[in-house]
Design brief:
Elements: H1 6-59, E1 62-64, E2 67-69, H2 71-76
Antiparallel strand pairs: 1-2
Length: 77
């Protein structure tokens, strides 16, 4: 399949370092890390939202102003 030896990786890294320079690589790395972190948080937030909606449907509750409330909580208000 697709595999790179250690020497090939070193050559590629050296070329990338020559093209972009150490400062640019540092900012690219931090930007990439921030993008991955944002993506992961968005995915987990979406999963939590879907789980909450599934629970509401299962319990027969309602969603009010973005909050999940069961029938018992809705009756208390």
């Amino acid at each position: 399949m697709f595999g790179l030896s250690v020497w090939e990786l070193l050559i590629v890294l050296a070329i990338v370092l020559l093209l972009f320079g150490p400062r640019r690589l540092k900012t690219l790395g931090s930007d990439l890390g921030a993008a991955i972190k944002g993506f992961r948080s968005a995915v987990s937030e979406d999963e939590k939202k879907k789980a909450a909606e599934a629970k509401v449907i299962e319990d027969g509750g309602t969603i009010i102003e973005g909050e999940v409330r069961s029938k018992a909580e809705a009756k208390q208000d």
